[in-house]
Amino acid sequence: MKGLIFSIIFLIIFSSQFDRNNGNVTINLNEKRQVIDGFGASTAWQGAVSDQIMNELYGTLGYSILRIRIDQHKQWNDELSNAKKALKLNAKVFATPWTAPANMKDNKQDKPGSLSSNQYSNYADYLKSFVDYFKNNSAPLYAISIINEPDIEDANLSFTPDQMKNFLKNFAGRIKSGSNIKIMAPESCGFRQDISEAILVSFFYLRNYC
To answer: pTM here?
Structure first.
């Protein structure tokens, strides 16, 4: 409840910086409208976060979700430390890659590009290796995303809707093998419906979808 109240207050204060018009807001905490899984933060590019900060976020403030980054060079120890601290405080942890290893990309570099057509299975195995690494080190993940914002300009790893559908249909099952981890479809930076529709067009794809 503390996390919910804090988030609501933050949103009200933040939005007031852009809209000076008067308005009324009524919050009825006793009337349920929808289920919210939780509120949280990300430790992407933050290194190993201290116990003090994690306890403040996931203890005092009541955060319940942590998003960690999948480093393409397999420098995963800092995020493993963050995940363990969050799990100890009963948070759900999910992971997101911003790009694939350079050898799997069409340009073979750590700069914006696409996944090579012959690397889909290797990319799935790479994501599974991350899942297994955390599971084997006492930090099981709740979910894993395929990629961060595949449609953003200069995305480190871009996916078209058809490419995303192909990956979920034919390769995402490899990530789930031997675990009950959920697969999250990536969020569109522009709220593009063609990305979500490509995934939701058939129930077949939802078998591997969170």
So the answer is: 0.81
Listed as own residue / partner, the contacts of 197-206 with beta carbons closer than 8 Å and 24 or more positions apart are 197/161, 198/161, 198/162, 198/164, 198/165, 199/161, 199/164, 199/165, 199/168, 201/165, 204/169, 205/165, 205/168, 205/169
Q: What are the sequence ranges of the domains in the chain?
A: 36-208
Residues 137-150: pLDDT tens digits? 999 999 999 999 88
Dist CA 93 CA 68 (whole Å)? 7
The confidence score (pLDDT) of residue 204 equals 55
Top-level class of domain 36-208: alpha beta
Question: By the 8 A CB rule, do 47 and 78 touch?
Answer: yes
Contacts of 26 (CB under 8 A, 6+ apart): none
* Concatenated DSSP letters of 73-142: T---HHHHHHHHHHHHTT-EEEEEESS--GGGBTT-SSSSEEB-TT-HHHHHHHHHHHHHHHHHTT---S
Question: Stretch 178-204: mean pLDDT, rounded?
Answer: 76
End-to-end CA distance of the chain: 25
Q: Encode pLDDT of 74-87 as tens digits.
A: 999 999 999 999 99
User: What pLDDT, on a 0 to 100 scale, did the predictor assign at position 113?
Assistant: 92
